[in-house]
Amino acid sequence: MSNLDSLPKYGQYINGAEVPPASGEYFPTENPYSGEAWALIGRGGKADADAAVAAAHAAFEQGEWPSLTASQRGKLMRKLADLIVANAEHLAEIERRDNGKLAAEVVAQVKYLGDYFHYYAGLADKIESHVIPTDKKGVFCYTKYEAKGVVVIITPWNSPLTLTSWKLAPALAAGCTVVIKPSEFTSASAIEFAKLFAQAGFPPGVVNVVTGFGHEVGAPLVEHPDTAHIGFTGGEIAGQKIYEAAARGLKTVTLELGGKSPNIVFDDADLDQAVKGIVSGVFAASGQTCQAGSRLLVQESIHDEVVRRLVEFVSTAKIGDPSQLDTQVGPIATRPQFDKIMSYIQIAKDEGAKCVLGGKSRPDLGAGQFVEPTIFTGVNNKMRIAQEEVFGPVLCVIPFKDEEDAVRIGNDVLYGLAGAVWTKSLHRAMYVTDKLKAGTVWVNNYRATSFTSPFGGYKRSGIGRESGADAIKEYLETKCVWISTDLDVPNPFIRR
């Protein structure tokens, strides 16, 4: 028996039970810190995708789930929220093993999901329709909102449970049923998460999970005739393919894609606070966040001072084992992503950017899947390092002259996910905030998000919004109802 055979196995979660993949095949998932396989993940395929969609479709059309009132759905979600908090340490440990997130951060993230589900539990019975005062006599007209149907959720490896919940909670509140396809690199936590739904009392088939590779299980889910909406977070190329496939079936989508967000520091900013915001914006989670402020725009008069403070501050960061609570920079989640980051560091050097901090890997730590926090100066906005998403702990610093110059540089990119402004001037903050083409703009802070506020991007950063009250609309269809109050049917040959 090989060492792999002794590892725990995760199958598919379909119709309320964990089952082996139809193929009988499994693949290992590795701990990015140790480099060792710690579990086996079921290699799903079209048969598994079909079974999961069939279960979700049946649960949506008949049985207990569609017969529940919105308030009853909310009660189930509240039970789930409490279970998430009770099991947060367990779920966080699995996620940390899979993607190398810092222990302190991932535990806090998972616990916060309890608040997320409580919020949407409260929204479930507040989806209110409208009576419409039309220009037609003898009719009563109103709208109602109905769940779209089976929702496919496809998530990446950087924050698996968080990004799943951003879609799952509003979808359930709306009355949809769901099939989740997690990243092949981080699938175990999704299976463990799904088991909580049965404990909370959700009917079988409402939430399903299929694991495996995108072309083998993700594509069949997107293309299945019984799926109605696709919620995806991930890379731009994969997002384009999903959008094209969904369009062939005339399905709706929410796409949260890449970013190359500008973090803009003016000469009147509180530099101590700005430096902390810069570090949080790009080096938290080892830079593996879509909203990372990877382009630092600094007014020319303070450029050198900001760089000096940054280098001094970031140089103190402790790199190492993510299970240790004092570790500040963990490993890169996957080997392909590690290689990509290192290639971009070399590209930046070849383009003429000056590496003033980091720029190297750390083969002495764990399995060597570490990249030092890296800062480049001498960057102009046309360089690839300033235009393309690195998704790692790499910051490029770009000087600017004035407000108009900052806005011009900030918007001169294909993405529009987020941005930030550091200034003591209210007028300047409002002006730049209004001009930036981004879905989220922070003023004198960076990376704050909430279940109460919408999140999403402009331009190539995506379509639709997640979180907040806006998100639930993505999972609803609008129906308009006309009821005649006339005693006599009008002339049928004359359109009303």
Descriptive overview:
- GO terms for molecular function: oxidoreductase activity, acting on the aldehyde or oxo group of donors, NAD or NADP as acceptor.
- The active site is at residue 256.
- Keywords: Oxidoreductase.
- By secondary structure, the protein is α/β, with parallel strands linked by helices.
- It has two domains: 4-257 and 461-479, Aldehyde Dehydrogenase, Chain A, domain 1, CATH 3.40.605; 262-443, Aldehyde Dehydrogenase, Chain A, domain 2, CATH 3.40.309.10.
- The chain has helices at residues 46-61, 64-67, 70-86, 88-99, 103-123, 160-174, 188-200, 214-223, 236-248, 271-283, 303-314, 335-351, 384-387, 403-411, 426-435, 468-472, and strands at residues 9-10, 12-14, 17-19, 26-30, 37-42, 131-132, 139-147, 150-154, 177-181, 207-209, 227-233, 252-256, 262-265, 295-299, 354-357, 374-377, 394-400, 415-416, 418-422, 440-443, 458-459, 462-463, 476-484.
- β16, α13 (384-387) and β17 form a beta-alpha-beta unit.
- α3 runs antiparallel to α6 (160-174) and α5 (103-123) packs parallel to α6.
- The termini are far apart.
